[in-house]
Amino acid sequence: MVLFRFHLLFYLGVISFSFYSNASVVQDAKAFKSINLVAPDASIRASFMAFGATVTNLWVKDKKGEFRDIILGFDNHTLYQTQTDGHPYFGPVVGRYANRIRNGTFTIPISKDATGPNKFFVPRNENNLDSLHGGTDGFDQRIWETTKVSSNSVTFTLLDPDGMEGFPGTVITTVTYILESQATWKISMDAIATQKTPIMLSGHHYWNLEAYQESQDLVGHHAQFQSSKFIGTDGHLIPTGQLLDVQNTPLDFRKAKSIGASIPATTGEQFCGTGCVGFDNCWVFDEVDEKKAAFSMWSVNSGIKVSISTNQPALQVYTCNSIFNNTNPIPRKTTQGGAQNVYTDHSCVVIEAESIIDAINNPEFGADQIYGPGRPYKWESSYVFSNI
């Protein structure tokens, strides 16, 4: 691990940060220590850690009034850091740029296929074709500073220096997690930059609203969200620049339906990439109104429902199509059946509220994802849990 000290005169005052680059296996036990929070009315509990600003557990009540931990992860927190141990981005903040960047390149100002001047290069850490979730050393692999803790909230801060993973400008990011009464989890992410740079953050959370108690699939999981368009991608899930209609496709969730029962209809359609069955797609909301639920998902078995409101214009949904690896299966947490069981394909759902993916290489999307002096970044989402 490399430790750098930075002292920045940044907008107002002098701010001192420690920057940790995960160049090797992290030995700092404090990075993996659980920070346990509970809502004022005890309706929701959760645990977080500084490594990746990660949520490791989240408990809400089912229809019988029993608490269940509905977030996937590892009991052994050190396993969150290495690909060889099956690192699947369980529960962290992903950035500096979430999702994929075509060819690991972009320009400022943005241009189609990074053909303009001022070209930047980010490590191609997926299939040697694109950059995924910020490169080989993204925000999920950093030790964040724990800057504020209370009984129901925690704030983490990260300094990402100029040139890290090829991105221009120094960026300071703050994420605050708050557990509120009536089983509400609020997340806010704020970032400021010294130079113009792309920023797109998201929380990368894996959900199973049954905590694997009733079933091992998603048939009992239903979803509904108002989105008539989704981002067209190629066989490697790289956006093509097209906005496609969900009408008459399995991606139409404008009326509530079972997620698991919809998966077989994706066979041969290549929605989640070449040869893939399931969903791994970015939907664009018909309307952005952070005061209304943009996405709802519930289990008819556990009775647990989550309703998400956000200021973000899009949503990536991934149905754990390839979470199972026969040579390196991921053991389930004790709260979800224990290590004698493993996480299997199509048994969980990742939900990422975010901006339109790879818009920095597709100006036709009309999403301005370049931030810098005078233009701060802000991401907000609220997760409200209830019973059906």
TrEMBL record:
CDD domains: galactose_mutarotase_like. It comes from the Eukaryota. The keyword Isomerase applies. Residues 1-23 form the signal peptide. GO terms for molecular function: aldose 1-epimerase activity; carbohydrate binding. InterPro entries: Aldose_1/G6P_1-epimerase (IPR008183), Gal_mutarotase_sf_dom (IPR011013), Galactose_mutarotase-like (IPR047215), GH-type_carb-bd (IPR014718). GO terms for biological process: galactose catabolic process via UDP-galactose, Leloir pathway; glucose metabolic process. Keywords: Carbohydrate metabolism, Isomerase, Signal. The keyword Isomerase applies. SUPFAM superfamilies: Galactose mutarotase-like. Belongs to the aldose epimerase family. This is Galactose mutarotase-like protein. It comes from Pholiota conissans.
